[in-house]
Each structure stands twice: as C-alpha cells, then as structure tokens.
Amino acid sequence: MNTFSRTTGISVVVANMIGTGVFTSLGFQLLGIQSFFVLMMLWLIGGLTALCGALTYAELGANLPRSGGEYNFLSRLYHPAAGFISGWVSATVGFAAPVALAAMTFGAYLSAVFPAISPRWSAVSLVVLLTLLHCRSRQTSSAVQQLFTALKVLLILLFCATIFIWGDAPQSAISFAPQTGDSTLLFSGAFAVALIYVNYAYTGWNAATYLTSELDNPQRNLPVVLFVGTGLVMMLYLLLNFTFLSAAPMAILEGKLEVGVIVADHALGETAGKAMGLVLALLLISTVSAMTMAGPRVLQVIGEDFTVFSRLSRCNSHGVPMTAIVFQGMLAVIFILSATFESVLVFSSFVLGVNTLFAVLGVFVMRWKKLNIKGAYKTFGYPFAPIIYLSVTVWTLAYVLISRPIEGGIGVAMIAVGGLLYTLSANK
C-alpha cells in the first residue's frame, strides 16, 4: 500500500474530530448557559463553521498538494517563516496537546469504571502503545485507524440508542424550542466563551491535509474526505448533545468532565453506567491514534526543508516518519505528566485557532497570486464560506485573550518562540 485510501482519509478526519471535546465540554458550557436551544445552537454553529473551514481547506489542499497542512499552505502563500511558525505550532501543540487531552480523558473515563487504575498512567500507556503501532507501516496505520474509527461511530450510535431505549424516561420539562432571552444569549460573551470549547471539539476537520502527499488522488479525494468527514461529525455531535441534555438534569452536569459517564449513570443505573463509561473510553483510542498518525507528517516536511531539523524527516524501510512519530509521542507524555486538563485545552485551542485563521485567509491570497491549478476544486460558497469561518474564529480568539489572558499569553509566546527558531534555523 503506497497511499492512503479515501476511506482512511475520512477515518482520520472523523477520528481526529470526535474525541475529548464532545465528551467533556458540555459541563463547562452549562456554567454560563442554561438554555437547551442555545446549547444546541452552539454545536450547530460550531459545525457549520468547521464545514466552512473544511470547504476552504479543500481548495488549498487540491491546489497546493503536499503533506504538512498549514505548514505547506503558509509557506507557499505568505513566506517560509510563516509556514515554519505554523509547522512549529502544529507539531508541538497542534497534535501533541490534543493527543494528551484525549489520552487524559481516556484515563479519566477508564478510572471511573476501574478506580484502581491510575488515569495519568493509563493515558501515558495509551500514547506509548499507539506510537509504537504507527511506527511500523502504512498498512498497520490504515488498519488500526479504520478499525477504531468504525468502532467509534458504532459505539456512539449504540450509546445514544441505549440511553433512549433502555434509559429512564427523558426529562419532561425540557424544550429545545427558542425561549425568551435566547436571542440575547446567542450574541453574549457567555456564548463566545462556550464556543471556544465547541470549536476545540470540532478541531481536526483539517487533519487529512497533513497526509495530502500520501492520499490517493488528492485533487479528487481531498474535498470529499474533508466534507464527508466534517459533515458526519456534525450530525453525531448534535445527536450526542441532544442525548446528554435529554437524559440528565443540567444541575448534575454543570462543571463536570466525564459527562458521558454521568449521563449513563443517571439514565441506566450505576452498573450499566460504568459499562458505558468503558465504551466511551474505547472511543478515545481512535482519536489518539489518528493524531499520532497525522501530526508527525508536519514534523517530517519541516525536517525535509530545514537541515537543522533533518533528523525528523528520517523514515523507516516502509516510508513511515518514525523519528517524528516518537518525538510527538514524547511531547504528549510531557503534557500529560505536567499540565492540567483545562489549561491545556484553552491554550491549545487559542494556538490552533490562530493557525487555521491564517490558513483560511490564505485562500484569498492564493487566488490573488493566481496559484490555482486548472480544473482543481474551488471552495463552494466562496467568498462567504471563508468569511464566515474567519469571523467566528476572530470572535472566539478575542474572548480567549479577554477571559483567559494567561493561556492566551502562553499561546502568543509559543508563536514567538517559533519565529525565533526560524531565525536561528534559517541562518544555519
């Protein structure tokens, strides 16, 4: 197998997106929003924003066909320095931090079922195991990814069906129709802050662009992979949050991390709830696997372009960037052992938002520079799709800086370090 199939590409997108965010963020959102309609609108708006971003990335990837995602786009469209900083962000934070978050959530859900198991060390063990698996070959990576992604989608559907069929009667007092005051809440600071968590949950819709060079017929398949993967995830997210809100009172979910376990406990009882907690833990294996598969490709292309990082481009006999995979795994383990869940989430959300902001803006630069390949895909709904994405992203980034200045400041510092490293490496 010399390339990844369309199915593998969709699996990577779905698995990268469905992970920590959707199973943890509702509890934080409920601290500022108590409207069923507004909470569902959060997930709908977040999904439509991600779709707008995916449609734009499809044009960028089809016309600038090389692995590396934002590193490739920004290098070609702006300047090698912009690409390097973007690649630095993607490689150090963009994948290692979400890998750590997904593994930490896996550990939290697993320890809720088996209290004797350390959540931190089970998270570390998962990262190490999947790092070793993805170091072998593309055949192994594809098989692991397709298996766990298919399992993930089936288990989500099983979870929702089990809650509605065998769970206690849904809450009778809830209404998902708009209520008085909801229109004001939609444009409030609380909504913007909650959208930070939702946007993080949708992070990963761009994952296939990190594998572009290894994707079969990328000009034809990349747009399909991004659109189908993102659209499928949006529908699953709406279904999951409808299930969460229907099955358990808001009061017991507020501020809680393991929302899925709490919902299952409330609707099915403690024993069945723990079983569903184990199911939800299994879902997160696919997420860690997908990010372990996609992220190191950014490090690989940086190593190909900058001699000071040339070791990261080294591949094994199967063409797999083993050194980069191991390096990312080590970074993820460091995050797991040294940081809290929420601080990593907000910090990485901010940095990733800045990264994709400039990439989506690049579609206007690409057309201005006339870099489009004849016959290649063009963004559906241009220029409105990229403008919608840019508007929502700027809004949420501004509220991160206002509401969480420490995490935002660390993100800015991380970007500055990337600029410094580029200056040093360019002089080598």
Oligomeric state of the chains present here: single chain
CATH superfamily: Amino acid/polyamine transporter I
Strand pairing plus helix content: what structural class? mainly alpha
For the record, the CATH class is Mainly Alpha
For the secondary structure, the number of strands is 0
The topology string of helices and strands comes to HHHHHHHHHHHHHHHHHHH
The helicity comes to over 70%
What sort of overall outline do the alpha carbons produce when their principal axes are compared?
globular
Q: What's the architecture, going by CATH?
A: Up-down Bundle
For the sheet with most strands, the description reads: none
- Beta-strand proportion: under 5%
- Mean pLDDT across all amino acids: 82
Notable traits:
Amino acid/polyamine transporter I, 75% helix, mainly alpha, globular, 428 residues
List the helices and strands and how they pair.
Elements: H1 6-17, H2 20-29, H3 36-63, H4 70-77, H5 80-94, H6 96-113, H7 119-134, H8 138-166, H9 182-186, H10 189-202, H11 218-247, H12 250-253, H13 259-268, H14 270-294, H15 296-305, H16 322-338, H17 341-368, H18 384-403, H19 405-426
Transmembrane segments: 12-31, 37-60, 81-106, 112-135, 147-165, 185-202, 222-240, 275-299, 320-341, 347-368, 380-402, 408-425
Keywords: Membrane, Transmembrane, Transmembrane helix
Subcellular location: Membrane
